[in-house]
Amino acid sequence: MNIKIADLTFEPLIAADAIQARIKEIAADLNKDYADKAPVFVGVLNGCFMFMADLLKEITVPCEVAFTKLSSYHGGVSSTRRIRDDFDLMTDITNRHVILVEDIVDTGNTLDYLVAKLNHRKPASITVCALLLKPDAVEYAVEELKHVAFQIPNEFVVGYGLDYMEMGRNLNGIYKRVV
Ligand code: 5GP
Ligand code: MG
Ligand code: MG
Q1: Is 106 one of the annotated active-site residues of the chain?
Q2: pLDDT digits (tens, 9 = 90+) for 124-133
Q3: Full domain range(s) for residue 54
Q4: ipTM here
Q5: What pLDDT, in 10s, does the model give residues 111-147?
Q6: In a domain? residue 81
Q7: Which of 10, 15, 40, 166 is the one with CA 20 to 30 A from 91?
């Protein structure tokens, strides 16, 4: 069913059960790769909150959970390239294995910035896990991006943590803008 948020209409793109199935696969890989590494999962707010929660419910290895907050879209439907550092990661990641959890990689600008910033703190490793990737929009290739749940067309999406004008984050599936 289509939904309306403010002036835009959205149609279903990825169903809730498909998201949950992919999360189980990614978690299985991470459980294998991080068995004795006590990783720190770092969620990038606000968009990561649902993905982070559902992913972590499937993680069985000892781990820490932390958050940071960045924003770049500022209410619109395309990247502004101006990254705002809303709050910093407070956990000491020196010599720790970090798993960054992102909602979506669009141009890659935000991720490129965040990975460079965290690398200054000398972690043992950084791996990025993103729910969505828009391959046709990528301008900054981030080599740390190892796990992607879904590749999607270069269109504006909402739901499952992602917003339009701060609305739609509560939807349990992903919806794309009808153009
Ligand atoms: P990038 O820096 O990779 O261009 O953009 C990353 C950030 O822009 C994401 O973390 C997300 O907050 C926002 N963003 C990118 N594409 C979309 C989209 O299709 N829908 C929504 N709601 N936000 C997006
Ligand atoms: Mg994000
Ligand atoms: Mg947003």
Answers
A1: yes
A2: 999 999 999 9
A3: 16-156
A4: 0.97
A5: 999 999 999 999 999 999 999 999 999 999 999 999 9
A6: yes
A7: 166
